[in-house]
Design brief:
seven-stranded mixed beta sheet, Beta Polymerase, domain 2, Methane Monooxygenase Hydroxylase, Chain G, domain 1, two-stranded antiparallel ribbon, 7 helices, alpha+beta, 2 domains
């Protein structure tokens, strides 16, 4: 079982030279290595390998999938595959923005895997190295996101077994991009929940909290989708023998998916902003209604206060001061004035 250790921060890298191998993120004591080697006719699968056990077979497609990170392990991987220290540094810096870098004999591609854990949006890094006849994938944490690709390879489904390593890279990126659609479905569900609660009584604070959390999630999704689109576009435009022309059309389609996801984030953001404006209008209308009622009540009491004030003056000679029915008459007068004012308000549709 993999055990995680200390989680390092970016501040610990301040002042270090470029290419310094310091993990920024959660350290795994024993990363796992899985090796899939396949062709059209055959497939083999090995797990719990050591780095020294990894042997690239030039006659088949090799997929080396690593789960977990620590500095010494990644350094050994770099030596095994001849990776530049700057690439190793990017792999260990788990807050990387999605991007693509081209080298002489390999391509480095990094993505963010975004998922909802309950209502919380979490993001993990996965790095890919495309070389001749192999794809090396390094995931920050264990995830089942690549399970469909494993199923296609082992059970000869789809086109993975009929193509080269560049197509395998495309399928791995594609499943990460497809995962964004699952996140969008969750956002859409939350938007429907938001729409259903806008008119519920006593939901003011809860509604604003839902809006704030949803906008934060959409912002995080957009921050991952936009650079993913840019990275896929750059990957498709690379002129490299590692990516054949047949795979380019799939990458173009993948770019279209990322553009659609970006449009969805903008559309959902506009919807949430409209909900917020509607809610603020609803809240303003409710506040105005309360103020109107209080104003009407206050206006009814104004003449009553005047009557009470007049008869509350401490003059010795005052009409009705010693009259037997003076108190009852003043009460009747105040009731009569109140009824007249209410009738006036009703006829003018002020209440």
């Amino acid at each position: 079982m993999n055990k995680s250790k200390k989680q390092y921060s970016h501040s610990e890298k301040v002042g270090l030279p470029p290419g310094s191998l310091l993990l920024v993120g959660e350290e795994t004591t024993h990363p796992t290595i899985e090796l899939y080697q396949f062709s059209t006719d055959a497939v083999s699968y090995k797990t719990h390998l050591n780095i020294a056990d990894i042997e690239i077979d030039a006659e088949v497609v090799n997929w080396i999938h690593i789960t977990g990170l620590n500095s010494s392990f990644v350094e050994q991987i770099g030596v095994k595959f001849g990776l530049h220290n700057l690439i190793l540094e990017d792999i260990l810096s788990t807050g990387q923005r999605p991007k693509v870098d081209e080298f002489d004999d390999y391509i480095y591609f990094v993505l963010r895997v975004v998922n909802f854990s309950g209502t919380e949006l979490i993001s993990d890094q996965v790095s890919f190295i495309l070389g001749k006849n192999y794809v090396l994938s390094i995931a920050e944490k264990k995830s089942e996101i690549f399970a469909p690709i494993v199923d296609r390879i082992l059970n000869k489904k789809g086109m993975v077994r009929y193509n080269k390593a560049d197509y395998l890279l495309y399928t791995l990126i594609d499943v990460v991009v497809d995962n964004f659609y699952l996140c969008m479905d969750k956002v859409e569900m939350l938007i429907e929940k938001l729409q259903g609660s806008i008119d519920l009584p006593n939901q003011d604070n809860r509604f604003l909290t839902l809006i704030r959390n949803l906008k934060k999630d959409l912002l995080q999704l957009r921050k991952n989708i936009v650079p993913t689109r840019e990275a896929v576009y750059k990957l498709e435009r690379l002129e490299t023998p590692l990516i054949v022309e047949n795979t380019d059309k799939y990458l173009r389609d993948l770019y279209d998916h990322t553009k659609q996801l970006e449009d969805m984030t903008e559309s959902y953001n506009d919807t949430i902003n409209n909900f917020r404006e509607d809610f603020m209008s609803h809240l303003s209308l409710k506040t105005n209604k309360i103020i109107q009622i209080l104003t009407i009540i206050s206006s009814i009491f104004i003449p009553l206060t005047f009557i009470v004030g007049v008869y509350g003056m401490n003059f010795e000679f005052m009409p009705g001061l010693h009259w037997k029915y003076g108190f009852v008459s003043s009460i009747v007068l105040m009731i009569f004035v109140s009824i007249i004012m209410v009738i006036i308000y009703v006829r003018n549709r002020w209440i």
